[in-house]
Design a protein that fits this description.
By secondary structure, the protein is of the alpha/beta class. 27% of the residues lie in helices and 29% in strands. The structure holds S-adenosylmethionine (SAM).
Length: 290
């Protein structure tokens, strides 16, 4: 499934390297990840989430507050297996790998053989994922230029990350499923009410931006959780984009709390690449889904 980011030829894992048919080679790190992000694909020195955000997300997710979201994704994949005994899956913008790893364990439990790749543009996110979860191929790469073979994937998962329709269309098999997770209207509403004076309720639906796919369904996942540790409240805040644009007084108010009851709400949209889709022509722009 993995192709060379320089010449797009197939790559093979040979000892501690990925080597392509054109003889380009990339070292596999001591943590077992590979960096296939070319400097020409970077828009900054250290693109993607930084070390602090990655650590906040890891510590928060490990407490299990978003397990309900992970379970819902696993159920959607299970429902769409339709008898497949071996599946190729890509998680784009996988972060530190919590959901990717739970998806792998879920498929192992079902006895389904899965080749799962997690891609993120953040080196820190992929290093963290590779250190923690061993059964997945972890790759530093960009969603806008996936080092993945054409029509090789049964599923693509993209959670709270960049939506680039044409690369998803290129790499999915015909009949393959695309699962997009975005924040719902009431997501973290009570947290926002503490930080901001006025709270705008809105949400992004990816359906229009992904209209080259068939939209199969939207599943709404909504539940309330009481966040019981001060650390987790800070980690939750620091893993969201709110950390970049919030009034100091609101942040201090939030960080003074010992616990926080808040709503968690996401929408999971499932799309299919039509069996009759012809070669895709690059007509669409990229959009962020949260
Ligand atoms: C909001 S986080 C979500 C992480 C993970 N999916 C989760 O839900 O825990 C978005 C992730 O997308 C990554 N990202 C941003 N731009 C990207 C790009 N162009 N290609 C691949 N990953 C990207 C960031 O580094 C970050 O890890």
């Amino acid at each position: 499934m993995i192709v060379c980011p320089v010449c797009s030829k197939k790559m093979q894992k040979i000892e501690r390297k990925y080597i392509c048919e054109g003889n380009h080679n990339f070292d596999i790190s001591k943590f077992n990840h590979v960096n296939l992000l070319l400097s020409s694909q970077k828009n900054s020195k250290l693109p993607g989430d930084n070390k602090e955000m990655v650590l906040s997300r890891k510590n928060y997710l490990e407490k299990g507050y978003y397990k309900g979201i992970s379970d819902a994704i696993n159920e959607i994949v299970n429902k769409n297996l339709k008898g497949l005994k071996e599946v190729n899956i890509l998680d784009i913008g996988c972060g530190e790998g919590y959901y990717t790893s739970r998806l792998k364990n879920n498929l192992d439990d079902l006895g389904v053989e899965s080749n799962i790749i997690g891609i993120d543009i953040s080196k820190e996110a992929i290093i963290s994922a590779a250190k923690s979860y061993k059964k997945i191929e972890w790759i530093v790469a960009s969603a806008s230029s996936l080092p993945i073979e054409d029509e090789s994937l049964d599923f693509i998962v993209c959670m709270f990350a960049k939506i680039i329709p044409e690369e998803k269309m290129r790499t999915l098999k015909k009949g393959g499923k695309l699962i997009i997770v975005s924040t719902g209207e009431n997501h973290l509403l009570q947290l926002k009410e503490i930080v901001y004076e006025t709270v705008r309720k809105d949400y992004y639906s990816p359906v229009e931006d992904l209209n080259i796919f068939s939209h199969l369904e939207t599943l709404n996942v909504k539940y309330d959780k009481e966040i019981l540790e001060k650390d987790s409240i800070e980690n939750l805040f620091n893993m969201t984009p709110y950390r970049w644009r919030s009034p100091q007084s609101g942040v201090e108010k939030l960080f003074s709390l010992d616990k926080l009851k808040t709503t968690i709400e996401v929408n999971i949209d499932v799309f299919e690449k039509n069996k009759k889709n012809k070669t895709f022509i690059n007509l669409f722009s990229s959009k962020k889904c949260n």
